[in-house]
Amino acid sequence: MHQDLRARAMLTRWLWAAVSVLFGAGTALAEFGFLLLTPLIALPGPQREPLSRLAVRLTEVELRRITRFHGPLYVDALSPQRCRRYLALRWLVGGLGFGVLLMLVLCVTTAGSMLSAWALGGDWGLIENSNQRVDTSLLALTVAPGTMLIFVSIVGVSGVSTLDHWLATQALGSGDLMHRRILELTSTRAEVIEAINDERRRIERDLHDGVQQRLVALGMLVGRARRATGGAVLEQAQSMVQEAIGELREVALRIYPSALDSSGLQAVLESLAQRSSVPVRLSFGLASRLPSALETVIYFVVSEALTNAAKHADPTLIEVTVTPGEDRIRVVITDDGPGGADPTGTGLSGLASRVAAVDGRFLVHSPPGGPTSLEASLPCA
């Protein structure tokens, strides 16, 4: 059973490598065409900038392909000069991959035609008018070299795929030490975010179980005293205590929404929409739970956006959409207010920092006259 799983995993990896080499052979044609145009870069004129952008664009296509089939690849900033050097070598790897795949196809096709001719006792129809009959002796002579060629082709596909990844790492990568430090920083940052959320949970529990319960008891006591004496002062005191309880609950909710752990993100966002002083239309497209850090960021982005819109924009409707992508979650909050929001303001810059803490992107689009749109794009892979 274990050997079957290993064999299946090896076959899957080889198939992924073959598909990567096939796509790489196709992109090599575009890269060869680009190299024919590179002499124009040395000439003065407006053609240099478009060619530099094309070099970066072709390199980005290659990086997406390699990342898709080989996993993450850490690279430095893509300068046009580095991209041109990479493409000058990359098309050779793509051409080599095309040759290996072509040899594999020819070997398998030839072997299949010979075996079918031998099994049916007919002529070898791969070569027209050859009148070459495939008998046992001819088959025995070709089995060893044919098997060797097929084996070399199969290994060659894996080799070209590995060479492709190695070339991108050497030409564009940021080095093993940088890779390790990036991984360490990413892991540490995730741990810090989780620790902060744990601390927020603790503070929320302390407020709920400690101070809030005392205020509730005080309110009940003042209520009993007011009913006994009928004093106006006690009535005012009870009212103030009730206001304090309400404010304390809001503070606890802003520190950390405990309902996220029990009810989930959708229920908490629906609760935010119901409590908003402005009508909110919520569209939630996530089918499963996200990591706690991501759900917390999404909650605070939506909560702060609703508060800012109600306080500063005076809109009649706010739309909130949460939609999944291939590897990112997209959160968009749009209001029909007059626009002109300042992205550098305290509220929006704080949201940008929250989103950046999880490798997300935060965009603000608020032209004069509106509408205002806030978009947070968060990685989920």
From TrEMBL:
GO cellular component terms, semicolon-separated: membrane
Segments crossing the lipid bilayer: 14-43, 91-118, 138-160
Molecular-function GO term, any one: protein dimerization activity
A Pfam family recorded for this sequence: HisKA_3
UniProt keywords, alphabetically: ATP-binding, Kinase, Membrane, Nucleotide-binding, Phosphoprotein, Transferase, Transmembrane, Transmembrane helix, Two-component regulatory system
Superkingdom classification of source: Bacteria
EC number: 2.7.13.3
Domain Histidine kinase/HSP90-like ATPase: 293-381
Catalyzed reactions per annotation: ATP + protein L-histidine = ADP + protein N-phospho-L-histidine
Gene3D superfamilies with a match to the protein in the record: 1.20.5.1930, Histidine kinase-like ATPase, C-terminal domain
Alphabetical list of PANTHER family matching this protein: NITRATE/NITRITE SENSOR PROTEIN NARX-RELATED (PTHR24421), NITRATE_NITRITE SENSOR PROTEIN NARQ (PTHR24421:SF10)
Protein name: histidine kinase
Organism this protein belongs to: Amycolatopsis taiwanensis
